[in-house]
Amino acid sequence: MNNHADAPAQLSSHQAPLSPAQVSSAQDSPQELTRDPPRETPRAVPLARIANPQPPRVLAIANQKGGVGKTTTAINLGTALAAIGEHVLIIDLDPQGNASTGLGIDRRNRRYSTYDVLMSEALLRDAVLATAVPRLSIAPSTLDLSGLELEISQERDRAFRLRNALEPLRTETPHSDFSYVLIDCPPSLNLLTVNAMAAADAILVPLQCEFFALEGLSQLLQTVAQVKSTLNPDLIIHGIVLTMHDARNNLSNQVVIDVRANSKDKVYETIIPRNVRVSEAPSYGKPVLVYDLKCVGSEAYLRLATEIIQREKELIAGTPFSNGPSESGQQHGAA
Fold first, then answer.
1. Please, are residues 234 and 297 in contact by the beta-carbon 8 Å criterion?
2. Would you kindly state where each structural domain of the chain is located, as residue ranges?
3. Separation in Å, CA 227 to CA 66, 170, 194, 196, 215
4. Which residue, 13, 73, 158, 228, has most beta carbons within 10 Å?
5. Once rounded to an integer, what is the mean pLDDT over residues 133-158?
6. Statement: residue 9 has pLDDT above 60
7. Superfamily name with CATH number, domain 40-330
8. Which residue has the higher pLDDT, 174 or 179?
């Protein structure tokens, strides 16, 4: 494990909160982020550099449907939270490893992965790698994860492997410097997703603005209820974020109306629009906020990060924003 003094300057956790100009400058500097990530092994990140007064909040980004924006949300929400001063760890639980690739982590540099962590062959701190975005780190995944369920299906603690791995972040004193942990779940309701829900404080649900959105949401909420009743009684739905919204499409607009009518205050006001820059960014190993800070997708994720922090404050204050009907839930967000 390398100490903080050895970390590259741009990855220092002691930097001031990232300004829009600093994020934008990374786009223009080929030495900071390039299409082909550096070949040297990224440095592991100590879990206790600047202590937080509270344990990190763990949010699982989950939806059993594929292509709804889970990984895109994990990458760009994590970047947006880091840009406004939070310290964020992304845990890649998808065997495809797209969150890792989208943050520029070369597959050859993933010495330890979330597979090793869940198999109890490595500590979480050993798997964590710094990214090119200040205050944003990731525990990458590999294809080995696809066989994990078969390997541990008979183990008594099979649903709690991730919770156990995260325990040091929550219980050690002083606490780790991470204020948020975002778990990128696979597109299925399998043991990996159950592990994420069992370990999480709350679920964030990306929901594509398409015809079958509500049908898939209903199935996911049933799974959350089962996990809450059997594995994690404190689990809540943090919010539903509408993604890939096309304001020119009548069906897309109708889905927004239907989801808000059905889920009310659980739906974030921020809507993530369909945006070509958001789609292009992962091919360059960059979050969209680094690839194009001024595009509508980047602006939307910054608004979402601000809204999530506001909801966190409401949770601390005991405001039941997502536990019942509210007139404010009838308002429609804008892309």
1. no
2. 40-330
3. 21, 20, 7, 10, 19
4. 73
5. 94
6. no
7. P-loop containing nucleotide triphosphate hydrolases (3.40.50.300)
8. 179
